[in-house]
Amino acid sequence: MEERDPEQDERLKSEIWKSLYEFFLDEHERHLESVADLGVSPGDLKALMRLVPGRREPMRALADTWRCDASTVTWIVDRLEKQGLVERQAHETDRRVKVVVLSRRGRQLRTQLFDRFYQPPAVLSELSHPDLKTLHRLSTQLRPEAT
User: Fold this and answer.
1) In this structure, is the dihedral angle defined by the CA atoms of residues 122, 124, 127 and 129, taken in order, positive or negative?
2) What is the pLDDT of residues 29-53, one digit of tens each?
3) All structural domains of the chain
4) Residue of 115, 64, 101 lying closest to 73 (CA atoms)
């Protein structure tokens, strides 16, 4: 049995993370380019991916989720509303609070976006079946719900 070298493990983890991170950044750039033809900006994309169909989100909660200030949320929601992708509505119990909900068009666009994003990158076709199985097993172990 091979003895573990903590320094070697740290270097290996660092190399793995760097490779994965660069891969994901490249894929993110590819996604941004692929959705530009749908008229979706990077800010719109982030908002649409995080809005849950059927859920009415208060503007303040969106600011917390999107990690930005209220004025930025207002600006993003204004843009999405002008495109017919979201609707502002009054809160059920507090009419001073505005909630945001995806419109039918917004739900359809969100589905299109997820369909595009879940298309495997072409580079995965270059891997052998055993490598794909190993990558699947390992990537499944990395997911938060797996721990």
Assistant:
1) negative
2) 988 888 888 888 888 888 999 999 9
3) 6-146 (1.10.10.10)
4) 64
